Amino acid sequence: MSAPLSHDGGGANQGGRVVILGIYVTDLTFRAARMPLPGETIGGSAFRMGPGGKGSNQAVAAARAGAEVVFCTRVGNDEFGAIARATWAAEGITARAGVADGVATGAAHIFVDDTTGQNAIIVVAGAAGTLGPSDIEAIEDDIAAAQVFVTQLEQPVDAARRGLETARRHRVTTVFNPAPALPLDDAIFPLCDYITPNETEAAALTGERVDDVASARRAGDALLKKGVGTAIVTLGEHGALLHGPNQSVLVPAFRCGRVVETAGAGDGFTGGFAAALARGMDPQAAVRFGCALAGLSVTRPGTAPSMPTLGEIRALLDAAGPALAAASQ
Predict the structure, then answer these.
(1) Which residues hold K(+) (predicted)?
(2) What CATH number does residue 142 fall under?
């Protein structure tokens, strides 16, 4: 497996290009004190509709973090598809979004606990669930011109794999966010320069229960044995473990205020990490950048709408000073 490419101009003013394959859905978010039981109706405290979907959230996060972003997906010919296009236009994202006739744009039901900000989500990919290898062939030139390619598992696996294969062929750094966790052919792992699972996803992929840093390292070792270049296990309020062949570093989370909503934080991390890599940051600095982005996002409602700007991320990093002490081995 080729090593991740290094890119010149590691300056923070270099935007870099990130190509993202994934889904768009419109989020329908309900806030309440608790989840209703089967057959029960309860009153909620708030409702919000807005743009979402892992791929689209990552695209918004990367664009606000300063990257030039190309996003590949499919939408339906409906009102939710119109919301998607308006979102991408407002964020300066170049959309390669085919229209799937007779299929609705995807949607997600998000429950948010009023007290903790924790969430439970049901997602229906809709039109983006029809993505396939031919969609990757249509954006090969975009991928070839990028510094970083990102994909996940909300769209069909064969599309994600073709995207990773295409990026690898053009020597473009690959970031794979294996969410939601699905059984995968082992052949996909050697295509990943970086993989960014959370605790649950890392456990599903490796069979190693992840509930602390030591177990995250064991899961990271298992992913390296499968052929991944570097594993980054996100650990919520504890930060993210950057685990590679030559280093294992826990990058602490940023605590930026009261947690309002955690939905989208993982997407923000991956989008921010990809944007930082595309600008030429080293992996540890890129993980810290992603943690700062995610730390700000959880203090705001929504998924894509919660993503901070580059100026906000820089201000947080500047206020925090030099990289925080990290546990390493």
Answers:
(1) 263, 297, 300, 302, 306
(2) 3.40.1190.20
